[in-house]
Design goal:
single chain, alpha/beta, Hect, E3 ligase catalytic domain fold, five-stranded mixed sheet, 19 strands, elongated
């Protein structure tokens, strides 16, 4: 056994124990690999295997195992099960030497390559590359290995740059990147080989719908995507519920059921699952747009995030407004506790808003037996302290919130005052415009005109600051939703409550205080002092008919929450 040394890129000097393989017959294993692109371009696993076997036989060694990686890249941090099995067997000393056809079959990343070889050396496992005639048993072989590893890393970096530029340009031109999204196809019906073609697509074997360069709607899959969006926006079903419904839903009179198309070499086609529904609901491609995710570089986070969006050449299945609405609903659901039932999920409109007056912490929605729903104090749920607040029925406290909303918007005085202000603005502007016209026609002196201008600016400024048009538009929108409260979904109720209430405090099972949002302040300030509607202070806290005096309410309402 011979001792040599080498320096890694970080400057560390590593002592290597090198075998003289000519002195004994060794147990060898082979490792072969092709990436997805190389599979398409015709690189052969069999050719690699033949070269490995011939080399092993020429050395008089025994080939005990051949590890194969198909359709997997060798770049840094890629998951390669066969390589992991090889390294585990090496640690157990089940062979003596690893043989590959070329170095880049083993690793394309220099640091990863040297790290793997250092591990093999620590286990007294040698390494040989057939094409480069690289023998890890010699010092010159080790030097050559470092150079080849560097070249392999340069190649993968250049490939990454070219791929990034190519994908960005395709997106700019309106074309998709990667696999064709579910719901679309090439439109080459006369020579279709897709899994969801024969015996599934009604256009299979018919004349082509295009040249194959621009995607067209798959008649069955696109309908499935449309159903997923309609069901999601039409109710409060979860991804799993929609998937289960699709599995039982007949798409035609013959009983055709929705199914995935599968991906050759990875997974087979089959029933629509929860993950498939989630992918449909989060893919902006269906809105007729092409997302560009980019390619993570060194040190970048690998999680896919849309960097840019471009108009696509493909037809849209949904509108951009529908896509945005779905994303808004999903965001609400991601922070809203839900109780899963076979048919629907329970959304709690007051989640994130409702607070306990005793401890000031938020109340969370939770379910009980026989489809009963409650809001529970966070302190009790987490058992992080003691709080006298008991669970309150969701329907009870939500009804009280409705009563409060109705009290805010019931008074016609609010609307009348904004109408009066709007009319006043029109009168002031009309008088100023008349004065300006008379001045231009030289019928009044400049001194009179300047006096009218000063009067106009003095009177119009406070009215302009109210922005009556925007306030009235908001008022009418919220009033219309309030009057249709019983027809609103739980999500729509939650949106409305989030718009008008920053926090809602309860004590026992009674709503005792409400802190309005900035959006509601123009309305609450108009209502202050109206005994028919509210006893509110400037801070917006309301205590009418709740059996508490204002001092008690303020004491029960934490100011720092």
């Amino acid at each position: 056994m011979q001792h040599v040394g080498t320096r890694s890129p970080d400057g560390h000097y590593t002592k290597l124990e090198v075998f003289n393989m000519s002195t004994s017959s060794l147990r060898a294993v082979g490792y072969r690999r092709v990436s997805m692109r190389e599979q398409v371009d015709g690189f052969s696993l069999d050719a690699q295997a033949n070269n490995i076997r011939q080399y092993v036989e020429s050395q008089g060694w025994q080939l005990v195992e051949l590890y194969t990686e198909a359709g997997i890249s060798a770049k840094k941090d890629s998951h390669r099960p066969a390589l992991e099995q090889l390294m585990k067997a090496a640690e157990q000393r089940r062979f003596d030497v690893v043989v590959v056809d070329k170095v880049d079959r083993f690793y394309r990343h220099l640091r990863g390559l040297l790290g793997a070889l250092d591990q093999l050396n620590n286990w007294n496992i040698a390494f040989v590359s057939v094409q480069e005639r690289l023998d890890f048993t010699t010092v010159w072989g080790k030097l050559t290995l470092t150079v080849l590893g560097t070249l392999a890393e340069i190649y993968i970096d250049n490939l990454r740059q070219e791929t990034r530029k190519g994908k960005l340009q395709r997106a700019r031109d309106g074309y998709w990147n990667g696999n064709i999204p579910y719901g679309y196809c090439h439109g080459l019906c006369s020579k279709c080989t897709e899994p969801n073609g024969k015996d599934y697509c009604p256009d299979f074997g018919k004349p082509d719908k295009g040249t194959g360069k621009v995607l067209v709607l798959h008649p069955v899959e696109s309908r499935v995507v449309r159903l997923v969006y309609d069901w999601y926006l039409g109710g409060i079903e979860s991804d799993g519920h929609i998937a289960k419904r699709l599995q039982d839903y007949p798409l035609s009179a013959s009983g055709l059921k929705a199914r995935t198309r599968g991906l050759p070499g990875q997974y087979l086609m089959g029933p629509i699952q929860k993950d498939s529904v989630r992918n449909m609901l989060t893919n902006i491609f269906y809105a007729g747009l092409v997302p560009y995710y980019g390619i993570p570089g060194k040190g970048e986070i690998t999680k896919r995030r849309i960097k840019e969006v471009f108009p696509g050449k493909h037809p849209a299945i949904i509108t951009r407004e529908e896509y945005d609405r779905v994303q808004e609903v999903r965001h609400v659901l991601s922070v809203t506790p839900r109780f899963h039932r076979p048919t629907q999920s329970r959304i709690y409109p007051l989640s994130g808003i409702l607070r306990c007056s005793y401890c000031g912490r938020k109340m969370r929605g939770s379910s009980g037996p026989r489809q009963t729903y409650y809001y529970r104090d966070t302190t009790r749920i987490e058992k992080s302290g003691e709080c006298p607040e008991h669970p309150v029925r969701a329907e009870v406290i939500e009804e009280q919130a409705l009563v409060w909303l109705q009290g805010v918007f019931r008074n016609q005085t609010v609307l009348e005052r904004y109408v009066e202000d709007t009319n006043q603005v029109k009168k002031i502007e009309a008088r100023y415009n008349r004065a300006k016209a008379l001045y231009i026609s030289e019928q009044i002196e400049e001194e009179i005109y300047l006096s009218e201008k000063a009067r106009y600016e003095k009177n119009i400024s406070p009215l302009r600051e109210k922005d009556n048009n925007a306030i009235m538009a908001s008022l009418f929108e919220m009033r219309s939703k309030l009057f249709a409260w019983q027809r609103l979904t739980h999500i729509e109720k939650r949106r409305l409550l989030q718009l008008v209430a920053e926090a809602v405090y309860i004590k026992g099972s009674v709503l005792v205080a409400v802190q309005p949002t900035i959006a509601l302040l123009p309305f609450t300030t108009q209502i202050i002092g109206d005994d028919e509607v509210s006893n509110s202070g400037l801070d917006g806290i309301r205590t009418r008919d709740l059996g508490l005096d204002r001092a008690a309410c303020l004491a029960a309402t934490p100011r720092d929450h």
